[in-house]
Amino acid sequence: EFTAGDIGLLDGRFSVSGPVSNSVAYRLSGRVHKRDGFMDDLDPAGGGGKENLNDVDDWNLRGQLLFTPGDQLDIRLIANYTERDQLCCSGELDAGPAHVAIATAFGIPQAPLDGTDRVVSLDFPVTFVQDSTAVTAIINYYHDAFTLTSITGYNHYDWEGKQDTDFSSIDWWQVDSKRNEGESWSQEIRIASKAESRFDWLGGVYYDSFKLKKEGPGSTPLTMGTIPGFVLPAILPPPLTVAAGDTSEVSYEWDQESIAVFGQVGFDITDKLTVSAGLRFKHEEKDAHFIQNPITASPFSIIALAIVPAMDEDLDREDEGVTWMASVRYLWSDDIMTFFTVATGEKSGGFTAAPGLAITSSQREYDEEKTINYELGIKSRWLNNRLQVNASLFHTEIEDFQNQTFEATSGAAIIDNAPLQISRGIDIEASAIITDWFTLNAAVEVLDAEYDKFPNGPCYLSHPNFSPSGGNCDVSGEDLPWASDWSAMITGNFVWPIGANQLYARIDYSYSGDHVAAEDLDPRAEQSYDLLNLRAGMRGQFGENSWDVSVWAKNATDETYIVQSVGIPLFPGSFMQWLNPPRMWGVTLSAEF
């Protein structure tokens, strides 16, 4: 398959498979994906000047071997390698008075910024480089009464990235994050019954080991630029200020081990009534060692005393618990089924891994969250299977919800626990065969998601309950970020036979209702938007082979909306906004033989 489009899009994919012998088969697949960026950097001296940021430049290769030495055994080995090298990931500055005043005072040109024109002006490169390797082995043994499955997985990745963290052409501060590495091992062993009786069951054990580390010296998450050396001495006496080049070096290592035992049973009480239940026990241990070392011109510098305090901490915690589910399903007829499910869940506590400004050891640790979810639904088919309608009512309560917050006052990216978060609503989906050549799919969700209790929640600077000392607010009763009050989508598929071939078209429309795209619930980021995607093409056969050619447009109306908005530390009134990609169009050719 090959795709070419505007914004320099080139996307090539292939997959080839076949036998090696009577009992061995292979599959090799890969992808090369390139696209120019959609953010223009106008600063001629830094960040590359006129480079297109937020581009795509990655490739991956995946190989598989399938061994079937007998009717009762199969072994599947999978290996995957991926590389990324991108000018990523830049948002767009909506400059406040502090940014404007400093730029004016030092005669620094600024791009014509309005927060939504996909134009930036940076003095430091924005880059992201990553490579990752993953290997998986899946073994199935088929007995007359059960199936025994083993899944072993290994994953390793490392990455480096640079960011201009004042998001402007002002040389204030920047991040150069190096030597980040992650590694994980997992093993699952599962046994399941054959689906040949009224009673079915499965059970298993799962083990996971994960390590995340960042090695110093030389890893500099924060380096002060030249401007603070001029600006801050006018506010503070010289021994307390910062100099250009003052740096923080960070090293950390997070180790995690978890083990879980699980089981589930189901029983057909009658031909129409089925009940099922499941239980899971988990135990998890986490250890962390964090070192933060300020390198400053003065030991009394504010970078040492306030912004990046020295730290050498060992942290550890253990979590364990039991989760369960129970479900009942009733088949009213061959076309109508209703169900009711209650399920609990847990997400273990942990530590904030990302370095930030003035994060204390107590702020780095957060508690586990616990969830209970209720769902009542129906699945149905009507009009001789020409209409399918599914609907569900849901109610979810999460205690100690792990809420990620970027605090603009300190620059700290931390995870806090909200005592109680509640989400409730209704989902409705429908699919209809209108004619032999036209089908329609639609869905709508009405959602009420709020912080029921969160007295120390995230807070924007102008919030009426803002606390300068703590940088937080009581947001109890407020809607969650990114939680649209209602959303909908509708898709139309058209297919017209032309001899042995088919002409087709697809229209996708979606709407996202009012929501705030900011963790601190700043109403400046409140929005709603709709998206339109279009595709038209022709497909057909040549012998036993097939072909397809299509033209398409994503975001056809060129809608612009905020994906995420955050405040900028030490620049009150300034915001960084990450925007969706603009309208894109292209042509895709594919063949299978």
Written overview of the protein:
This protein has 593 residues and is mainly beta. It has 4 helices and 31 strands. It has helices at residues 97-105, 226-231, 302-307, 361-364, and strands spanning 2-5, 9-19, 24-35, 39-41, 52-53, 56-70, 73-86, 92-94, 119-120, 127-142, 146-163, 173-193, 199-214, 220-224, 247-268, 273-295, 311-333, 336-347, 350-351, 365-366, 369-382, 387-407, 412-435, 438-453, 486-498, 501-516, 526-542, 545-554, 562-567, 575-579, 584-592. It has a 23-stranded antiparallel β-sheet that branches. The protein has a 3-stranded mixed β-sheet with strand order 5-4-9, with no helix packed on it. Strands 8-30-29 form a 3-stranded antiparallel β-sheet, with no helix packed on it. A hairpin with a 2-residue loop joins strand 27 and strand 28. The termini are close together. The mean pLDDT is 89.
- Radius of gyration, taken over Cα atoms and rounded to an integer in Å: 28 Å
Distance between the amino and carboxyl termini: 12 Å
Mean pLDDT across all residues, rounded? 89
User: Uncertain spans, ≥5 residues at pLDDT below 50?
Assistant: none
What structural keywords apply?
single chain, 593 residues, mainly beta, 23-stranded antiparallel beta sheet, three-stranded mixed beta sheet
Q: What would a concise description of this structure say?
A:
This protein has 593 residues and is mainly beta.
